[in-house]
Fold this sequence. Notes:
Helix content of chain A: over 70%
Shape of chain A: flat
Oligomer: heterodimer
Radius of gyration of chain B: 25 Å
Number of helices of chain A: 12
Structural class of chain B: mainly alpha
Helix content of chain B: over 70%
Structural class of chain A: mainly alpha
Strand order of the largest sheet of chain A: 1-2
Radius of gyration of chain A: 27 Å
Distance between the termini of chain A: 63 Å
Largest interface: A-B, 88 and 87 residues
Distance between the termini of chain B: 58 Å
Shape of chain B: flat
Strand content of chain B: under 5%
Amino acid sequence: MADATQTAGFQALDTSAVTRKFRIQDRIFYLMTLGSATLVVLLLLAIIVVLIIDALPTFQAFGFSFLWGTKWSAPADIYGAVPAVVGTLVSSFIAMLIAVPLGIGIAIFLTELCPGSLRRPISTAIELLAGIPSIIYGIVGLFILVPLMQTYILPFLMMTIGQVPLIGLLFQAPAPGVGLLTASLVLAIMILPFITAISRDVFSTVPPMLRESAYGTGMTTWEVARHILIPYTRRGLVGGIMLGLGRALGETMAVTFVIGSVSRLQSSIISPSTTISAQIANNFGDADGLQLSSLIALGLLLFVLSFCVLALARWMIGRGNAL
Amino acid sequence: MDNAIRQNLVSRRYGKNRVMMVLCLIAAILGIFFLSVILGTLLYRGVSALNLDVFTMSIPAQGSRGGLINAMYGTALVTGCAILIAAPIGILAATYLVEYANGTKLTEAAKFLNDILLSAPSIIIGVFVYGAVVVPMHGNSAFAGILALALIALPVVNRTTQDMLLLVPNELREATAALGAPRWKSMTMVIYRSAWTGILTGILLAVARISGETAPLLFTAGYSKFMNASLTGPIATLPVAINTLAADAGEDLKQLAWAGALIITVAILALNILARVLSGRRQ
């Protein structure tokens, strides 16, 4: 009896020392994880703060008229955001117009039509292509697509749609091959794997029971896609498309190679134009003073723009999962 | 009569179905066609530009022999250092978010901010590092490039580690706690080990992502024609070299750009496949 208490007491002493050591080590580990998590948040805040500080001279010089200024001229030291912002929005919009139906079409093909043995290889190939760096799309666009556009596609567009009143304004010369439409095509091809993968993933979340019942009532494949797959996955689908839009808005290298970089507001979508990221990539290296600050202000605008799109996308996808 | 209307309706529905399915098929063929044109061009122009010089010499001046060895070295150095910085911080941050404070409002906000950072345009990261590092240091440097890439890799590692830690069954945590193991031992010796293939996949994907990045390196790491081992000077990386060489007037330098494009794409595809194999083995 006495022996047992002695042992127990001895052990209690020993464990309390070990426990103290463990508690200190635990505390250190906890603080390391907390510090890392805080760092991630602080970094995002630091990005915003640094961008705002560096953009300040522009807003001091032009006030908020920078946001609706339509002129960007380094010699005159006058800078306005509109040409680049419009170029960014229009090129992304056209890219989405091409990539979304194509991507959803491929996803429907993969989930409903494709023979089982081909499904995995095609999906894998498309997912792998999503990892190809954007500069590859840029140089292929420059050396393959631009000559094609210049010699065949753009003259054809000018001869046909270009002759139609009103819409024709969108397709007027000069058209050297590089331009907004070419950039939109490259962007569309770039985000296509992404849109396809997301659509296929959300389509596969549709319960098999729902799909089988629909087929059982005699629906055609298209009706199943149109009335079951797309409505059921609407939120996830839209969220995924918004993520694709976020990529298109911020894409730099692919666009820089093929857009022609002319910072002027134009009615024609086949003429050389620019986007925020192309503007920054092209001029940042040798800019200083007010121009540098204006480029950073453009960057801030892009950040705000993509933040809004991404926040909306996350919100939609989050709600989709909750349902 | 009634039957005729029904027949008509059915044939219209089937007709519409056929049209739409053919359109889907065309979409698939078009998609595969576009993407094979890109890969085909890359292979065709890249392979014909490959030779021993590409792997043994530095970037040449117009008209002389040369290769991309300094750019390959630069990419390996910058990418490697960036992941060495980003991986531990990302894993630890994910550990806090999942293991210590999961579900609180503050963590949800932190996860959201991480996702924003994950999808932020990479050129913005470049502009930020320019303002925060390049300007104070008076010039481009490999160090600035490393920081820019680390900033891009960090949210990727953080996000994938979060997902992997959430997959670890709670029983494991309870069992280690019941054995009297302190939390940090339970994390490092049990939880990380059961999630390590997933975490490694995330790190590989982050490496694949940052090794192809161009925009954030343009004005941070800069460009150099020479082999440069120091972290404080500008250093060439493959993507920036491709960007510079492709814009050059000289045909031989354009060739070199295609060779570089092939090398970086093959490397990134290999990393992606490796990541897939790893994550496939886990399931």
